[in-house]
Design brief:
By secondary structure, the chain is of the alpha+beta class. A hairpin with a 3-residue loop joins strand 7 and strand 8. The protein is globular. The N terminus is likely disordered.
């Protein structure tokens, strides 16, 4: 394959992978705007989870958030029923137990289906050589010395043949000794398969934000509104992205779970470390199209996916940012921040956590 065609394919692939609710009401519901509405946990809390009480809170960009993006606006009140959520992202140990029990093969480990892939690419993209269309995933290129333009993602992302949850940096790497690290290189299908096996669900974006707020209702960050303590509370990128990470937070790239303090209800790593897949479709216009005249009950997200940067793909919302988030680049280490991820993609900075509702456990 010609070099220019190979580069074009990779560029389109990276744009696809990283370009970056029906409203209900309920009669006679009483809620409080200033503080959480505490609800009683109706069933025993599953191991490794915490209860998130029902609350009415502000979803979307908060006042004073200088990093807020248009897709996070306008902020609006939502009410979310109580539920359980994992204390941490799903770890390598937990995902391995699922794979061992089911013999599941992740998307990153399967042969590449060009016929399916080209349907989600602009017309006319030539088929890459079979030597390139091999199972693999995206990994961050930590050897970048300079960048010509921050709009060119191909400068710091590499398609690595053989990269998967078992080999997060490529075929020569492993997860040995990393049981308590978040599992990565997870596509939506992989996360849903795990949920089915574990009797869990992916959180909606509103559930995720409710959990991230903890006992609060209007925070920018999981710990409050003070950006000065970011480095002691989340694994992000310090320095010049993507050239130099000063690692002031103690980690250059991914970190073990529970490396930073939990939020007010005991949840770890809701910001930074790895992005977390949610159940909602990503639509940059979703908040603008909501009826905000009253709090929205248990929103389920947009009915259709839409991103002008990625018009060919169905994308889901990912939340929380990752170890690559930097103030000069994505600044997604905030509760309201979100990006879109195509359903068939994965990378070394994307994982997930799960939720359970009382009716699922009774």
């Amino acid at each position: 394959m010609k070099i220019k065609h190979m580069f074009s394919f990779l560029a389109y692939l990276l744009i696809i992978l990283f370009a970056a609710c029906k409203n209900d009401s309920k009669n006679n519901r009483k809620s409080t705007d200033k503080e959480d509405k505490e609800t009683v946990n109706p069933v025993k809390t599953p191991e490794g989870m915490v209860w998130v009480s029902e609350k009415t809170f502000i979803q979307g960009a908060k006042e004073g958030d200088k990093y807020a993006m248009p897709r996070e606006m306008p902020a609006h009140k939502v009410t979310v029923d109580g539920f359980f959520i994992d204390v941490t992202e799903v770890t390598n140990k937990q995902f391995k137990a699922f794979v061992d029990a089911t013999k599941y093969i992740t998307v990153a480990e399967r042969p590449v289906d060009w016929e399916a892939m080209k349907k989600e690419l602009p017309k006319g993209i030539p088929k890459p050589h079979d030597s390139i269309l091999q199972p693999g995933s995206l990994i961050f290129n930590k050897d970048v010395n300079k960048v010509a333009s921050m709009d060119n993602y191909t400068q710091w992302w590499t398609w690595k043949i053989g990269a998967s949850w078992k080999h997060p940096e490529g075929p020569e790497s492993s997860i040995e000794g990393k049981d308590n690290y978040p599992v990565v290189h997870i596509a939506l299908e992989d996360a849903l398969a795990y949920c089915k096996w574990a009797n869990r669900k992916l959180p909606t974006e509103a559930q995720w934000e409710s959990a991230a707020q903890g006992k609060d209702t209007d925070n920018i960050y999981t710990w409050g509104n003070n950006p000065e303590i970011l480095n002691t509370h989340a694994n992000t990128w310090q320095g010049v992205f993507p050239i130099k990470n000063e690692s002031k937070d103690g980690f250059e790239l991914i970190a073990p779970v529970k490396s930073y303090p939990p939020n007010s209800i005991g949840l770890y790593d809701m910001l930074g470390n790895v992005w977390e897949i949610t159940a909602d479709l990503f639509n940059v216009n979703y908040y603008k199209e909501l009826n905000n005249s009253q709090p929205i009950l248990n929103p389920k997200g947009a009915s259709t996916s839409f991103s002008p940067n990625n018009p060919y793909q169905v994308e889901h919302v990912i939340k929380g940012g990752s170890f690559l988030c930097n103030a000069s680049y994505c600044a997604s280490f905030r509760i309201s921040a979100k990006m879109g991820m195509s359903t068939d993609s994965g990378s070394d900075h994307t994982g997930f956590r799960t939720i359970a509702t009382p009716d699922m456990l009774e």
